[in-house]
Every structure is written in C-alpha cells, then in structure tokens.
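Q: Hi! First time doing this. I have a protein sequence and I read that you can turn it into a structure. Is that right? Here it is:
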Amino acid sequence: MPEYNNIRDIINKLYNSLKDLIKNNGIFSFINLAALNFTIMILIILITEWINSNMNIFNFSIPMISLRLALSSLFIGIWIGFFKITLNYLDGGKINILNLTSNFDLLPKILVLKLISYFTTLPLFSYIFYKFPYDLQIYGTNIELFISDTSNNIIETYSDTVAWEIFSNYISSSEILLFIFLSLLPVWFSLRFWCAEFLIIDQNLTIRESLFTSYKLTKNVFELLTIGFILMILNLFCMLFGFVFLIVGLTSTYLIILIYYRHLKSFILIRDLNK
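A: Yes, that's right. Below is the predicted 3D structure, encoded as structure tokens:
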C-alpha cells in the first residue's frame, strides 16, 4: 500500500490531490461533473417514481420483476458511464455526456460482480427472513421497504420497555452474535473487492483479474475504513445545507475514492515492476 505515515497524512494527500485536480481542470469543469451527477440522480428518482405511481413495479410477477431488472441494468449502465467520465476527468479530459451510454459493453461483467456480491448476503438475509417473515403481498420485490419497516419496528420496540422485554425473549444474545457473524462475509467482500468494478471500468479487466487485483490492492482495511468514515461525516455535514451541497459532497467523494483507487493501483504497478 502507499506509504502513509499516519491518518493525517492520508487526509492531506487525498485533500491536496482533490484540490490540485479541481484547480488544474478548472472549477467550471468540476461544476459540470457535479451537475451531471445531479441530473443522473434526479432522472433515476423521477423515472422510478413515475413508473411506480402508474404501475406496481414491486409486484411479485414476472413482467414487473423483468421490468425492475431491466431498469436496474439501465441505471447501472448509466453509472458505469458516469464513472468512466469521472476517470477521464481525473486524467484531465473533458466531460462528454455522450459517454454515459458508450460503455454498456462493460455492463455484463459489472452485473456478474454485483451478483457475486449479492450471493455473499444470502446467509444473512436467509436468517433475517427466518426471524422476520417476508410478506410477498405487502412487499413484493421491494426488499428495501421490508428492511426499512423492520428497522423502524425494532427501533420503536426498543423505545417501549415492555415491548423490548418481549422482543429480547424472541431474539437471544446468541442469535444476535449469529447475525453479526453472518454480516462479516458481505462486509469483508465489500472491503476487499470494492476496487473490482473500477478496475473493469478503468482497464476493462476480466472478472477474475479484477477480483484478484482488488484483493491485492485492499490489504490495508483500517486505512480504507478511516477514509470511508471521514467521507461519511463529510456527506452528513453537506446534507445539513441541502440537496445541492449534498451533490457537491457526493461528487467530491467519488473523486476522492477514485484518487485513492488510482494511488493504490499505481503503487502495485511500481512494486511489481521493481520485482
């Protein structure tokens, strides 16, 4: 990994790299990138809301499942284009919105990576569905709503002393430990293979190559967690000032993540060349 002396050194290097990037490319170029990020997010939200208001997209039926899978694939393909544009921005290139749809050939490999990621959550969700039965008539394929409702119910139960005592009898301490244990696999996968998608988008590696290379790049988990925590605080702070500031924060976050990814990748390349 890159030789940082301490956490402050990590922050300073990433901050200075971001500042130099914006300065060299021009502030208007950064604004264009943030505006593109804003436009994509708004369009995805509006399209999803419009479709769901006119038809129950979460209905557990083959047509609706197919429609949702198609929409998800389309949105992922657009985000691939956005990150390709962002990587080009890192290299001093111009922001061309036409590139949003010019990298759909990478979509199959990205979808396979996401499928592998979802498989790591199967034991965890199997346990959750076992303890908290999933009602297909209410939720259909809307797992996000199920998780939200379940979380809210647990929080409300926690605030009620009597209800919490009943709930404590339903969920034992050993089952909580099992839940934590089952969470370790998806968390570990996210920490060690987060570079894989960027390696495919950036270098068009195979799935196997991207996973292997990402595993080599992400040995310093503590460093990654520290950066992730700082970026989370940054975006929470930006949320206090409204949606526009959040978009600026998210765009800066994407840039910092990609800068960090490029630092890791260049270090591995130099190390391998010196062997």
